[in-house]
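Sample intake sheet
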Amino acid sequence: MRTLIVKPIFFQLIFSFSLNFFHGQTNKDLFLFDISKIKTSKVNKNNFKDLTETLDISGSYLNKLNFLLSQKNTKYYYIDSIIKANKLPPSFSCLPLVISGYQTNHKSEFSARGIWALSFIAALNKGLTMNNYIDERLNDKVATIAAVELLKTFSKKYKSDNWTLLAFITSPNYVSNIINKAKSNKWVVAKKLIENKYLFNINLINWLSQIEIKENKNLPNKSQETLLNFTFKEDILFDAISHFKVLNFKEINKKNPFLIGQVLPKKYKITLQENMGNFILKYEDKIIAFQDSMLKDLFYNPEPISTNIIYKVKYGDVLGQIAIDNNVSMEDLMKWNNLSNSMIYQEQKLTLFSKSKKDNENIYLYSVNKQKYFWELVEEFPQNTIKKICKYNNYQELNNQQKLKIIHK
């Protein structure tokens, strides 16, 4: 009797463990991107009433998928148009949703990048530009064109939507290995050999492609500013531009996510607001001339703006008395040495600028706080200009906690 009771319990435990293990796999671990990082906004319509039973996706991820589907039909509506224009199956337009969750800077396990998760080799073969200044995999529309060409190649080769999707998500080598092991190119026969993670995502793509969004309230917003493509004859640094006009460089990066440096590369189409692009074009020669001087450190004055001395703190010194003895204010003394309070210690070295010889400009040593470029300093301290910063410092990319002389009121 004990044997008859123990066996069912044993197998029940094994079955329960298997279900729990599979359920764990069919959630976060099966997605090709980190779905937990997707930040959702309010989505009115739930398009996944039957999805939980169909693909066993936990409810915590349904809202994120619903949000991504709304992104597909609003922000990324053009992908459907490009897919349709190239006579590819509509389901293929769901690939970036499933591969990257539309995260431009998404990096997959294969070191691929962009919303289409294109590998370096695949992108290079499709003519995308990737260098020190540009990674066109991060240009959503350019990457979409390249991805469509790759899909057309796979579609022609496999003559099967599912095999095409699998080749795009993994690689043609992976597909060849599956077909060889199965000794059949029939999807129904070979799919049992496909890794559960990839099979799950292909099923998800096929499910998503069947969902029709009936509400078209959230149409893409058209910016009030006219956006145009501009090309420039030389590489132009953001720092050089900002000497002439403080532009919204963060917006430039947002409109051109493929830019991986703080420079507008020469002879390459850059999307800018019309007034911004026209300003750079108008003053391009002056900006480039300034940039040449900036890069050669021609503005830099190695002599300090005023006579400075290094004072070594002795036993019994107090900051207030040091300031009085050297005819400077305690406030200036603290600014020059980045002191948050009046505490000093023996053998500490303090920089002192002689007030009698000091310029009208209030120069002090600033400890860089996460800024990497001079234009970021100008944005934070508008009393400075790029030329003035270059006058007191060598031009360079900045490091955290690096000391710079800047004007501070």
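Comment: The first strand starts at residue 227 and ends at 230. Residues 7 and 13 are 10 Å apart (CA to CA).
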